[in-house]
């Protein structure tokens, strides 16, 4: 199984992170077919990386600014049977690609995603991960930060179970190459575009669209495909947590406008109605037994749910007004 790995980069501030990501792909037990680094409309960074990474294919984003365009550019160049995506501020465990490849013997499997663990502030620096991609330290999680909301920092959240899933998380995912012409690629109107808000969901919309067009296809989550994703200090703060939840609501409104509310909110309903209440009760119980952080986690779950719902409501209302004007 030939696997092309696409890494999207955009800023010199992640110079060491990008090198650590590439080093972790080089160290895979299942050797990659190729490593493609797509630079998002940053000619200086493109020139530097092209010189520094002679064994990788370093190209400029051929589409509009943003993560969707970068991924589409990488897919268009990929030669592999499978295209895997790794965030530019993440490192993959040595068995990452092998865990992905093991599933593609089943022709029904169109995509496989893996377990993304956070590298909190104080974790192994990116410069050290260039030499040894497996981190010795994963830093310190803020005591108030609930695991049910680890998706706000691009990581796997509590409540996600292995096996068939609706969608994969974009920074740790792989798809058969033929899935892209079938689904139509990533939508440039959804996801990170550096507009000032931490938007997302381009991979969610893509996965739902793929399964709507190919209902027999399966997407699989395998927690043996491990990566570690860096959480900078600003993203470990409560202010970012709230902003990210609000932006996720806005993004979900765009997703439901594209694929419908039934598919677009199926997983979110289960998470909100089952996983989050359990998490809040767990936090209250922890607080009652002497862990003050438990009360913070319970409160953060309530705030996170409220801000996400608020963002979704604003997004839906905005779309309706735009439709009415047109």
Automatic annotation (TrEMBL):
<dbReference type="InterPro" id="IPR029044">
    <property type="entry name" value="Nucleotide-diphossugar_trans"/>
</dbReference>
<feature type="domain" description="Glycosyltransferase 2-like">
    <location>
        <begin position="4"/>
        <end position="114"/>
    </location>
</feature>
<dbReference type="Pfam" id="PF00535">
    <property type="entry name" value="Glycos_transf_2"/>
</dbReference>
<dbReference type="InterPro" id="IPR050834">
    <property type="entry name" value="Glycosyltransf_2"/>
</dbReference>
<dbReference type="InterPro" id="IPR001173">
    <property type="entry name" value="Glyco_trans_2-like"/>
</dbReference>
<protein>
    <submittedName>
        <fullName>Glycosyltransferase</fullName>
    </submittedName>
</protein>
């Amino acid at each position: 199984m030939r696997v092309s790995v696409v890494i999207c980069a955009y800023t010199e501030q992640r110079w060491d992170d990008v090198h650590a990501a590439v080093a972790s792909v080089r160290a895979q037990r299942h050797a990659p077919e190729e490593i493609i680094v797509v630079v998002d409309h940053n000619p200086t960074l493109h020139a530097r990386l092209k010189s520094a990474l002679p064994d990788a294919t370093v190209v400029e984003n051929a589409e509009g600014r943003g993560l969707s365009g970068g991924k589409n550019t990488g897919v268009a160049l990929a030669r592999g049977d499978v295209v895997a995506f790794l965030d530019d501020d993440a490192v993959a465990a040595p068995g990452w690609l092998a865990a992905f490849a093991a599933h593609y013997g089943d022709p029904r499997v169109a995509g496989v995603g893996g377990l993304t663990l956070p590298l909190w502030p104080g974790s192994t620096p990116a410069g050290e991960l260039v030499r040894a991609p497996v981190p010795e330290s994963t830093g310190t999680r803020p005591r108030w930060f609930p695991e049910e909301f680890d998706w706000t920092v691009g990581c796997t959240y509590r409540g996600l179970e292995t096996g068939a899933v609706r969608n994969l998380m974009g920074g740790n995912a792989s798809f058969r190459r033929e899935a892209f012409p079938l689904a139509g690629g990533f939508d440039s109107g959804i996801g990170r575009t550096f507009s000032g808000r931490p938007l997302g969901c381009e991979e969610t919309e893509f996965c739902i669209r793929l399964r709507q067009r190919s209902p027999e296809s399966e997407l699989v989550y395998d927690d043996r495909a491990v990566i570690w994703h860096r959480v900078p200090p600003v993203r470990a703060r409560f202010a970012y947590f709230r902003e990210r939840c609000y932006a996720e609501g806005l993004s979900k409104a765009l997703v439901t406008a594209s694929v419908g509310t039934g598919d677009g909110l199926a997983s979110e309903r289960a998470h909100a109605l089952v996983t989050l209440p359990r998490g809040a009760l767990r936090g209250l119980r922890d607080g009652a037994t002497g862990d003050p952080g438990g009360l913070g986690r319970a409160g953060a779950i309530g705030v996170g749910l409220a801000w996400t719902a608020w963002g979704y409501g604003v997004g839906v209302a905005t779309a309706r007004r735009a439709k009415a004007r047109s």
